Amino acid sequence: MVLTNGCTLLLLEIPLPDEASIRTQFGCVEDRIESFTTLFMPTPNREGRKQLLQTLKKALGEKEEKRENSIEKKTPIDVPHHETKLEIMLQKLNPSIHEDCYDPETQTLNLSMKGLSAFPRSFFQSFVEHFPVKHLILSHNNIRKFPNLKKMTGLRTLDLSHNYITKIDQQIDVKCPNLEILLLQDNELTSLPKSLEMLLCLEEINLSFNHLQRFPDFHTLFNLKTLDITYNPKDLWRKIEDRAEGRYR
Q1: Domain ranges of the chain
Q2: Pick from 12, 121, 139, 182: most CB atoms within 10 A?
Q3: Do residues 19 and 61 touch, judged by C-beta distance below 8 A?
Q4: C-alpha distance from residue 227 to each of 215, 223, 230 (Å)
């Protein structure tokens, strides 16, 4: 490249260090340029030296601008906070569970057929603090212990069918006072807590395909429309018939 004053400038492709490195080596960008011109142009005239200085400053400025633009492009896209939180909470149960298991419109949490066997003690309590749940579906898993549903007072539907549950939480009436549908068919239940009698909003209970030996008195459940206790031991039916006739308590 020939400058206007007739001085020939060789533009070499020399990797330029970042500004921090330049300041460490030469104190500042200007010192770096001064050293560069002294090294490659030992006796330039004044005008040539000035033009070279401007050219190098421009090159350094363009490089810094490109570096800043590159950093901006690499900035990750912000993900809505509630979606990130939901994903993290669900994957604590199982890495294969994703946020599409929760429907915010119907407030339904569907975790059926996820291979679940247990839940962290405070999982549901923590979950409902961020995401309201009216319908909880946990069917077709490997659950053996009734989950802790503390603070799920807004729950309307609880589906625990097709699991291996042997006992129902004694405080279900306190934890889920507004429950309307309770599905527990195909489990390992042998008895039911009296607290079921206090679920006054219950409209449907399915207890079929269990091993029930005793049965609570549901005369307090005025809203109950459907009760299924089929496919339980025959003794249960005899006791129910005896109770109806006043022979059994």
Answers
A1: 19-74, 98-244
A2: 182
A3: no
A4: 12, 11, 9
